[in-house]
Amino acid sequence: MGLVKGTLSFSRYRVVGTLPGNVRDFIDKQIKLFAFRELSTAGEKAMGWTSLENVLDTDFEYANYVMADYFIFSLRIDRKLIPPSLHKLKVLEAEKRIRAQKGEKKIYRQEREEIKENVRLTLLDKTPPTPSFYEVCWNSSEGWLLFGSHAKKIREDFEEFFKRTFSLTLVPYYPWDMKHMDREVAETVASLKTESFSVPQR
């Protein structure tokens, strides 16, 4: 993982909102409350926080994710993916079997939908989840955060889950946003004007 060793690709955010007085206790409580839990048999996606150093550590013993004003941990997302072609094949097989059992040539729409759902649940039960891990580095005192992914869907999942966990909003970081600049720098930028120039005539 890039925060520990190697290179790191990340998205940067500003953290918008107010933290309670005892920041560490609050974050410790919330990060454990929303720690990763294993995916249920019929579930397709599960997400939660884990330790950066040991992704199996969801207890965060001894607050090992705290370094001064920095909170460093991981977001784990487990997904079960069923190939559409496999699902279609198993549905056809189930329909054929049911027609043979009933001695009928036709399956009505409602029954076909039930077959599709039953096949999906059966496949989910047999499909192992694929885990993914994304690093988080949050400076609570300065109000910025790094997240180890550029992918739009992953970032959307992270932003929603972070807000649900800490009741704080993540806003993409733009260094030229004058609302967050030092006052003197913002005034200087606002006063800049593009110099006009004339194009020589041929």
Question: Describe it for me?
Answer:
This protein starts with 10 loop residues before the first strand and ends in an 11-residue tail after the last helix. Mean pLDDT is 83; it is low at 194-199. β5 (130-139) and β6 form a beta hairpin. It has 202 residues and is an alpha+beta fold. It folds into two domains: 11-80 and 129-191, no CATH class; 84-126, no CATH class. Strands 1, 2, 3, 4, 5, 6 and 7 form a seven-stranded antiparallel sheet that branches. Helices cover 36% and strands 21% of the residues. It has five helices and seven strands.
Question: What is the element layout, followed by pairings?
Answer:
Blueprint: E1 11-16, H1 23-33, E2 45-50, E3 66-67, E4 70-79, H2 84-102, H3 109-126, E5 130-139, E6 144-147, H4 152-166, E7 169-172, H5 183-191
Antiparallel strand pairs: 1-6, 1-7, 2-4, 3-4, 4-5, 5-6
Report the uncertain regions: 194-199
Class by SSE composition: alpha+beta
The share of residues in extended strands comes to: 15-25%
DSSP helix count?
5
Q: What sequence of helices (H) and strands (E) makes up the elements?
A: EHEEEHHEEHEH
Roughly how much helix do the residues carry, as a percent range? 25-40%
Strand tally, please? 7
Residue-averaged pLDDT: 83
Instruction: State the shape.
Output: elongated
Radius of gyration, in Å, reads: 25 Å
Total count of domains: 2
Largest sheet: 7 strands, antiparallel
What distance lies between the first and last C-alpha atoms, to the nearest angstrom? 59 Å
